[in-house]
Amino acid sequence: MQKTTGIHHITAMVNDAQRSIDFYAGILGLRLVKKTINFDRPEVYHLYFGNETGQPGSVITFFPWPKQVKGRIGTGQVGVTSFIIPNQSIKFWENRLKKFRIRFIQSVRFGEKYLQFQDPDGLEIELVERNEGPHNNWSFGEVDSEVAIKGFGGAILISTQPNKTANVLENVLGLECLGQEASFLRFKSDGQFGNTIDIKLTPSVRGLKGAGTVHHIAWRAKDDQDLLRWRTLLQDKEYYPTEIRDRNYFKAVYFHEQGGILFEIATDPPGFSVDEAVADLGNKLMLPSWLEPKREELEEALPTVEVRVLEENQS
């Protein structure tokens, strides 16, 4: 049976590029591993944040566009994105969120303690301590490798038809159902990162696309050949996947599962060092070859952004 090892990346929509960089790099300490454009809307950035190398399973990406209307988190979407932090680091993160005046709540799900909060656009984020996965060697500001976010813990899916979404996770993507607790059904894959998926079983409002919502969740494929097998499987099961699309740093197919959530399957290779050295990741606007002739025009149209140490880290 085909099996994904877990989440490849999660992509969300936001309003302001610099504000998102300040939050995910400046506060959460993730590395900006790629500054490029939305290949379908080149006037809009596509920003990728992850661990030191942008390893699959650690990368959250954003389409920042000021003209986007505010979205609403609800059915047909990823409701919450979870990140793993090292054991014994949760107190550091509580203090850090307080320092930046970010309100958070604590919750327990399947025996794990979560810190839940929102980013500036209203995306729901949570941190959970786990032993799984290597430490992230990237350090920024006060966030060093001893406390740095390792990668994804997983996600909470809000489905219009939870039983249909559960069927896709278990019988198409190959995740194992671990059982139900209260209003959540939990699934797990074999990967070190992005391996724990909870489906919310209680009713939710209808999700509306826009700033502050997740656009899609992507699952890992080993390589191009594995992606072809995934596409054939999806066709056989009548999920009507798209053609294979080249995203420069991975190849991908997309499909909507029956609960309304946009799923992607993306290859691990070639990765983010295909067009710049690991030491230089995120420093320069990177463009696909077919847009390179328009570099000057695009750089003029896009807002100037930078990774910067925030005032709170200087005190």
TrEMBL record:
Residues covered by the VOC domain: 6-130, 151-268
InterPro entries in alphabetical order: Extradiol_RC_dioxygenase, Glyas_Bleomycin-R_OHBP_Dase, Glyas_Fos-R_dOase_dom, VOC_core
**What Gene3D superfamilies does its record include?**
2,3-Dihydroxybiphenyl 1,2-Dioxygenase, domain 1
Question: A single GO molecular function, which one?
Answer: dioxygenase activity
Keywords (alphabetical) are:
Dioxygenase, Oxidoreductase
Q: Does the keyword Oxidoreductase apply?
A: yes
Say yes or no: keyword Oxidoreductase present.
yes
Q: What is this protein called?
A: Ring-cleaving dioxygenase
